[in-house]
Amino acid sequence: SSKILQKMLTEQAWNEQKAVRKIMVFLHGHGVSTARAVRIHKTYGDEAIEIVRADPYRLARDIRGIGFKTADQIAQRLGLSLDAPARIDAGLQHVLLQATDNGHCALPLDILRDEATRLLVVDSGLVLGGIERSLGARNLIRERIDETDLLFLPNLRHAEHSIAHRLLRSAQARPPYPDIDASSALAAVEARTGQSLAPSQREAVLAALRHRALVITGGPGVGKTTILRTLLALLTSRQVRCLLAAPTGR
């Protein structure tokens, strides 16, 4: 019985190696490096060939280190035409994902159209058709803001709306510390530090004392650090324990 079991295990290992070799040969034949082929096999297992043939652009969505251009090259080797709907749709997704590197959750329709047209090197009419197709399939979401049509990936729109709603709920709640006579406390801090706040900075500090959450934005040099330092000095002078989380700066 042990010999039979050993034989079965040997045959199983041999079959697994044959399957891996078949996948590697297929991927190498379509311009995929060995390192990427290994990641593809680890992700998709024995179904890798069928998955890549059915939708090569899944590689860019599912596997870190494989971008749209690599997936597009594989798609071309598999015979997919430049104007194929799957290619247009994948290009739109890629442009919107690239925009997130610059902090954008969405792009205006005309910018998305122009960027995708340049990426795909196709007629802009095909891109507009792809946008409408993706909207119909709910792979894109359109939202009109300030007279501009913005196009979102669904998960990013959901995340942005969820964060905004949570911030609004927090901002409408009372702060977690006792009522503070803001005007006199602020005057005392300014006298102690010898630093007077600008009207907009003063407004930000007072708003922070009224709300559980507050978002203060602005580029370098607008006084965000001064606002924070003043707020911390004011709260600690009233025996409020503060925790500061600073992923950047000091």
Can you give a write-up of this model?
Helix content is 62%, strand content 5%. By secondary structure, the protein is mainly alpha-helical. It has a three-stranded antiparallel sheet with strand order 1-3-2. A hairpin with a 2-residue loop joins strand 2 (141-145) and strand 3. Helix 1 (2-28) crosses helix 2 (34-44). The N and C termini lie far apart (69 Å). 19% of the residues are buried.
Number of strands: 3
Q: Assess the beta-strand content as a share of residues.
A: 5-15%
How does the helix and strand content classify structurally?
mainly alpha
Low-confidence stretches: none
Q: What's the mean pLDDT score?
A: 86
Q: Give the helix tally.
A: 12
Instruction: Please give the alpha-carbon distance between the first and last residues.
Output: 69 Å
The best one-word shape is elongated
> What is the CA-based Rg, rounded?
28 Å
Biggest sheet statistics: 3 strands, antiparallel
Order of helices and strands: HHHHHHEHHEEHHHH
Widest sheet, order of strands: 1-3-2
State the share of residues found in helices, binned by percent.
55-70%
Quick gist of this model?
The chain has 250 residues and is mainly alpha-helical. The chain has helices at 2-28, 34-44, 48-54, 58-62, 68-77, 85-99, 109-120, 124-136, 154-172, 182-193, 199-210, 224-236; strands at residues 106-108, 141-145, 148-152.
